[in-house]
UniProtKB/TrEMBL annotation:
Entry annotated with the keyword Acyltransferase: yes
Protein name: 1-acyl-sn-glycerol-3-phosphate acyltransferase
Species in which this protein is naturally found: Nannocystis pusilla
Pfam families according to UniProt: Acyltransferase
Nucleotide-binding is among the record's keywords: no
Residue span of region Disordered: 135-155
Length: 291
């Protein structure tokens, strides 16, 4: 699709997502909540509906060729129930949408103004998102209402109350999605990993599911306007590292966080090489002067 067509289509896609999210929150989810059934059955219905919204949006982006994306098969060691924490790097704006569509029931920590927004507050509450505080971005995602922190000086220990909420959420048997970078990565460098996600998982004794998101060419990066679309559509891929079990283990969250950051750094460098190779292959070949 030509670049000049993808710009207005991108605007339409995001407008449609927020509008549809508002409709789902104010109309569809309340109906599902009042539909007869046990509390567990109602919860499953709402989780499946919310997950379907995220999956549907990504399928739409793929069908209209704004992005290339196929939802990955979950690995055999992916938790099928109970609390767990999915962590991932954060290369673009739509990473949250990708991860929320992996499995029903996933939630995150959200900005206070989104949690109380007239447009999305009902969806936020039915989805089980955790309200954060103005400075709790060191713990959570940054896209579509999730927390973002542009300041790199925040301390991991700034928000113990939010970590406590995360632990309680996980212990209740509900999973979370967290981006330890807190904000989107730089184009060619990852941000440092904040340890809130690992600390919450260790304290709750739940599995950590490390996922790596790659996109080639880069798009929807930090400080990049939505209308600055690449010449080629971004191809997204989600890969999984082995699940880390924390229950019954004496783990140091700081050390585990450093080890995870090192593993992500290796894969991030590989992604940069893939991007560079693709950009070189796609570049027009200079014609040799005729003799």
């Amino acid at each position: 699709m030509p670049k000049f067509l993808r710009i207005p289509l991108t605007a339409f896609a995001f407008f449609g997502f927020f509008s549809f999210g508002c409709i789902v929150g104010w109309l569809a989810l309340p109906l599902l909540a009042f539909w007869p059934g046990t509390p567990e059955a109602k919860r499953r219905r709402m989780d499946n509906a919310i997950c379907g919204v995220y999956r549907g949006f990504m399928q739409f982006l793929h069908l209209v060729r704004l992005v290339g994306y196929t939802r990955p098969e979950l690995p055999p060691d992916f938790p099928r129930s109970g609390g767990y924490v999915v962590i991932a790097n954060h290369p673009s704006l739509i990473d949250t949408l990708i991860l929320m569509g992996l499995s029903p029931g996933l939630a995150s920590v959200v900005k206070p103004h989104w949690y109380s927004s007239w447009m999305l507050r009902v969806l936020m509450r039915y989805a089980g998102h955790i309200p954060g505080t103005d400075r709790s971005a060191a713990l959570s995602p940054s896209a579509e209402g999730t927390l973002d922190m542009s300041q790199e000086t925040a301390s991991d220990g700034d928000m113990p109350a939010v970590v406590d909420r995360m632990v309680a959420h996980l212990q209740s048997g509900r999973p979370l999605v967290i981006f330890p970078e807190a904000s989107r990565s730089w184009e060619r460098k990852m941000r440092r990993f904040r340890r809130g996600a690992v600390e919450a998982a260790v304290r709750a004794g739940v599995p950590i599911v490390p996922a790596f998101i790659s996109v080639n060419p880069p798009m929807l990066m930090k400080h990049q306007p939505w209308y600055e679309v690449p010449e080629r559509r971004g191809m997204y891929r989600v890969e999984f590292f082995p699940v880390i079990e924390t229950a019954g283990r004496d783990l140091d969250p700081r050390q585990l966080n450093r080890e995870l950051r090192a593993a992500y750094e290796v894969r991030f460098v590989e992604m940069l090489r893939e991007r560079d190779a693709s950009a070189l292959a796609a570049a027009p070949v200079a014609q040799l002067p005729q003799t």
